[in-house]
Amino acid sequence: MTASDRTIKHSTGDGMKLLELYAKMKKDISYIEKELERSIDVDHPMLREASLHLLKAGGKRIRPVFVLLGAKFGTYDLAKIKHVAVPLELIHMASLVHDDVIDDANTRRGQLTVRSKWDNRIAMYTGDYIFAKALSIVTKLPDPAIHQVMSKALVEMSIGEMEQIRFFFHAEQSVRDYLLRIKRKTALLLAVSCQLGAMAAGAAERDARRLYNFGYYAGMAFQIRDDLLDICGTEKEIGKPPGSDIKQGNITIPVIFALRNPALRPYLLDELARIEACDGQTDVRGFLDIIRGSTGITEAERMASTYIDKAIRVLEGLPDIQAKKDLVSFAHFVGNRSY
């Protein structure tokens, strides 16, 4: 059983539907999983253990799967496609290691974070190492266009992370501020996963562009659902305590919508000031209860559904192959996921 299987099997409902999709791709996903492990093998024992720690904790591996599905629209050659699928997942992993340092997070996917098991310094260097390995692997594809797409995505991700920090506890941020931030932080990497899979397989440029747009819309919905789960989910479901976002000052879309309610706004502003004054080291259950009972939840759910609808519509121009149907199924999973 792969790490991605372990993550999905522990869930129900939409997770079981997703597991059926993964089962069809099991051989190729297992191959990518082995390549991921091989890619971060290093002689230094602590660096090897820290690098493997997050990999072994599991994950949905959506980025490599999007690469594989995107490649189905061209000449599918796994030996070539892996040089995109593996780096994109490594970039995602490295960003999580760094995120956990910024967030002072102790758990992820139900396991201790690298910073918690070791320390912040080891975590930062581990993330740096994984980033470096990702870049070294993609250079095995002699296509500068692929290198440019991936490097641009990395730049935008970094800006997105900085923007998130800049807006910590900033109650006046707009919906547009939030959407631009999650585009950079999350959606772009999913978008280029679809696009680069197609590019590496030599798919038509118009199809690669449609796949990019699909990944972008699905990625926006993915992050909105993630932000909803941080408020409405349980620790068992999401692998970390709910309310982690607001404890670090990250004001997400359900909160932005709730702040528009004049009856709730004064209380929410007081709560945000209290949480910030305590540097997040305080009980946020009352704050979460207010958000859960507000229209912010339904408005955020509606926004996520709109992005999923856009993701499915943009696929209409693609060839009618099985991969297209699988992408539609992934979109439905993203829009309804509970983990």
How does this model look, in words?
There is one protein chain. The longest helix has 28 residues, at 205-232. Helices cover 74% and strands 1% of the residues. Helix 5 (62-71) packs across helix 10, helix 6 runs antiparallel to helix 10 (175-200) and helix 9 (144-166) packs antiparallel against helix 10. The protein has helices spanning 3-9, 14-24, 26-39, 45-56, 62-71, 78-103, 114-117, 120-138, 144-166, 175-200, 205-232, 235-238, 244-248, 253-258, 265-277, 285-292, 296-314, 322-336; strands spanning 107-108, 111-112. It has one domain: Farnesyl Diphosphate Synthase. With 339 residues, it is mainly α.
Residue stretches low in confidence (pLDDT < 50, at least 5 long) are: 1-13
Please identify, by name, the CATH architecture.
Answer: Orthogonal Bundle
CATH classification class = Mainly Alpha
Cα Rg: 20 Å
Q: Would you summarize the structure shown here?
A:
Belongs to the FPP/GGPP synthase family. With 339 residues, this protein is an all-alpha fold.
Topology readout:
Layout: H1 3-9, H2 14-24, H3 26-39, H4 45-56, H5 62-71, H6 78-103, E1 107-108, E2 111-112, H7 114-117, H8 120-138, H9 144-166, H10 175-200, H11 205-232, H12 235-238, H13 244-248, H14 253-258, H15 265-277, H16 285-292, H17 296-314, H18 322-336
Antiparallel strand pairs: 1-2
Helix pairs in contact: 2-18, 3-6, 5-6, 5-10, 6-8, 6-10, 9-10, 10-11, 11-17, 11-18, 17-18
